[in-house]
Amino acid sequence: MKVLVLGAGQLARMMALAGAPLNISISAYDVNSDNIVHPLTQQLLGNGLAQALVDADVVTAEFEHIPLPVLAQCQQSGKFLPGAQAIQVGGDRRLEKSLLQTAGVATSAFTVINNETDFNAAIAQLGLPLVFKSALAGYDGKGQWRLKDAAAAPALWQELAAFLAADPQQAIVAEQFIRFDREVSLVGARNRHGEIKVYPLTENHHVNGVLSVSLARPLDTALQQQAEQMFTAVAEQLNYVGVLAIEFFDVQGKLLVNELAPRVHNSGHWTQQGADCCQFANHLRAVCGLPLGSTALIRPTLMVNILGEDQVPNSILELPALGLHWYGKTKRAGRKMGHINLSANSTAELKARFAQLIDLLPAATFPELEQMLQQL
Ligand code: ATP
Ligand code: MG
Ligand code: MG
């Protein structure tokens, strides 16, 4: 099978790595350059989307911020999964919030802001503190503003007004600030027959809005059931095919959906060695019409993102059950450059191995890990 992936980043790369043993070959469409490239080498394979759509058996995406004409062109091919609607919903917080409402799943209270009247109404209706998010193009906590004190509202509005004026397509979604106990996510797959398999809930730790560590270990089954129910409601509402990720806030055992990602997800990278079938293989299986693989947790596993660095000490490779994954990208401050997966046979053993890993990593590059170890 030939699968064309919209986007040529690390997620397309890891799909290619997972697809090879299944005889699924991946080509990647770099939306910015309009080039078709090899997902591992970035070698140029062709120009333009039209011919690539003809050549592919299946078309999918590794990110949701894709121009509408490109989505329409892919939809037209009849080969696009999970399809234009799901990608659009993932890329526009207005559509995402209304989809969540239609699916009947809980999310933080919100309003949409297009002008100053809306801005003042959001504060009056939702109260403070508030989180403001750009409706389009937000990722890694970019395009977000916080408001704690009413006194800061006029200055914030000046900033938001300038942001809105710069792009007529944009809007802002105001959300109640949630005092959550922790953040968790559910990654799962739905195939063409409507069969759903989900991985266990993953606990996620963010630093400055960017995922730093994900941890998969046996968790409360009631919480897992709640998440699975919400996942099923959203996936069925979208008639979704492929891997879907849902981020939640856990508020005293009650889950609220933060957002969804219509694709494989950073918080699912641990599945490369914590599950028999990783999220990348399961995404390809789903979109190619193959049976889904097991999503059961085979051993507690955590993932550490490598941000803004292109080297780590080789000595970490001496640790048992450690996987190092580089994305082959050029170094830039804060950029997702790679990740480390670490597994063990029990949570206690994982904690001990994590402590060993932290000792080997330069503290300046990974300043938050020590604190996360304490939370384990
Ligand atoms: P991602 O890279 O996950 O796509 P994003 O830019 O789409 O990030 P969100 O996931 O919406 O952003 O927000 C980033 C982080 O900000 C969340 O993981 C959470 O820690 C915090 N956050 C977002 N919304 C809220 C909220 N309503 N209340 C409290 N914290 C929030
Ligand atoms: Mg997001
Ligand atoms: Mg998020």
Automatic annotation (TrEMBL):
Annotated GO MF terms: 5-(carboxyamino)imidazole ribonucleotide synthase activity; ATP binding; metal ion binding; phosphoribosylaminoimidazole carboxylase activity
InterPro entries (alphabetical): ATP-grasp (IPR011761), ATP-grasp_carboxylate-amine (IPR003135), ATP_grasp_subdomain_1 (IPR013815), PreATP-grasp_dom_sf (IPR016185), PurK (IPR005875), PurK_C (IPR040686), PurT/PurK_preATP-grasp (IPR054350), Rudment_hybrid_motif (IPR011054)
A Pfam family: PurK_C
Catalytic reaction(s) noted: 5-amino-1-(5-phospho-beta-D-ribosyl)imidazole + hydrogencarbonate + ATP = 5-carboxyamino-1-(5-phospho-D-ribosyl)imidazole + ADP + phosphate + 2 H(+)
Domain of life: Bacteria
Binding site for ATP: 93, 133, 138-144, 175-178, 183, 206, 258-259
PROSITE patterns reported for this sequence: ATP_GRASP (PS50975)
GO cellular component: cytosol
Biological role: Catalyzes the ATP-dependent conversion of 5-aminoimidazole ribonucleotide (AIR) and HCO(3)(-) to N5-carboxyaminoimidazole ribonucleotide (N5-CAIR). Catalyzes the ATP-dependent conversion of 5-aminoimidazole ribonucleotide (AIR) and HCO(3)- to N5-carboxyaminoimidazole ribonucleotide (N5-CAIR).
UniProt keywords, alphabetically: ATP-binding, Ligase, Nucleotide-binding, Purine biosynthesis, Signal
Family: Belongs to the PurK/PurT family.
Enzyme Commission number(s) from the entry: 6.3.4.18
Protein's name in the database: N5-carboxyaminoimidazole ribonucleotide synthase
Record keyword Ligase present: yes
Ranges where the ATP-grasp domain occurs: 97-288
Gene: purK
Signal sequence, start to end: 1-18
Subunit structure as annotated in this protein's UniProt entry: Homodimer.
GO BP, sorted A to Z: 'de novo' IMP biosynthetic process
Pathway(s) per entry: Purine metabolism; IMP biosynthesis via de novo pathway; 5-amino-1-(5-phospho-D-ribosyl)imidazole-4-carboxylate from 5-amino-1-(5-phospho-D-ribosyl)imidazole (N5-CAIR route): step 1/2
